[in-house]
Design goal:
mainly alpha; two-stranded antiparallel ribbon; 5 helices; about 180 residues; about 80% helix
Length: about 180
C-alpha cells in the first residue's frame, strides 16, 4: 500500500502543479476546496483509464476463448462486448466507491442502489451519448471516425463524473 501512496503523491503533485499554474495564468485563486474537487476528478480519470484497459482485456480474452471453444461463432464479438461491459463497469464501480467517491464519517450509501445507478450512468454515457456524438462528429462535422471517439472523451468523461458524483455515488447522512 505504501507504493500506492507514493505513486498517488507523485500524481497529485504533478496535477497540483499543472492546475495551480493554469489558475495563476487565468488569475483565479486555487483553494483547498478546488484542489480536492480536481483531485477527485483526477482519481476518476485514473479509474477510467484502468477501466478501459480492463474492458479491452476482458473483450479480447472472452473473444479468444469463445473462438477457441467454437461457441457463438456469428455473435461472439457481441457477447464479448457484453461481458467486457458488465465486468469492467463492476471494476469501475468498486474502485470509484473505494477511492474516488469515498464516504465521510456520518454518511452512508446503499451499495446495490449505487451499483445499479452506475450501470445506468455508464450505459447512458458509453452507449447513448457516445453514439449520438459519433453521428454528430462524423456525419455532420466530417471528423474522422478514428478521431471522433477521442473527442467524445472530452464530453463523456466529465458528464459521467458528474452523474456518478451527484447521483450514483451520492451519500446520505446516516441516522
Amino acid at each position: 500500500m505504501k507504493s500506492t501512496n507514493i505513486a498517488w503523491n507523485i500524481i497529485e503533485g504533478i496535477a497540483a502543479f499543472v492546475f495551480k499554474s493554469c489558475f495563476k495564468i487565468v488569475g483565479r485563486d486555487y483553494t483547498d476546496e478546488i484542489h480536492a474537487a480536481l483531485m477527485q476528478f483526477v482519481k476518476f480519470g485514473i479509474v477510467g483509464v484502468s477501466n478501459t484497459v480492463i474492458s479491452y482485456l476482458l473483450y479480447t480474452f472472452s473473444l479468444l476463448l469463445m473462438r477457441a471453444v467454437g461457441v457463438f461463432e456469428r455473435i461472439d464479438y457481441l457477447i464479448a462486448t457484453v461481458i467486457a461491459f458488465v465486468l469492467s463497469v463492476l471494476w469501475s464501480f468498486y474502485w470509484n466507491n473505494k477511492m474516488v467517491f469515498v464516504m465521510e464519517e456520518g454518511q452512508s450509501r446503499n451499495l446495490w442502489k449505487a451499483l445499479i445507478k452506475t450501470y445506468i450512468s455508464y450505459s447512458f454515457t458509453g452507449l447513448f451519448l457516445n453514439s449520438v456524438l459519433m453521428v454528430l462528429w462524423v456525419q455532420i462535422f466530417h471528423i474522422s471516425e478514428f478521431i471522433a471517439p477521442i473527442i467524445n472523451l472530452l464530453v463523456s468523461v466529465p458528464v459521467n463524473f458528474i452523474i456518478n458524483k451527484f447521483w450514483a455515488f451520492k451519500s446520505e447522512e446516516a441516522n
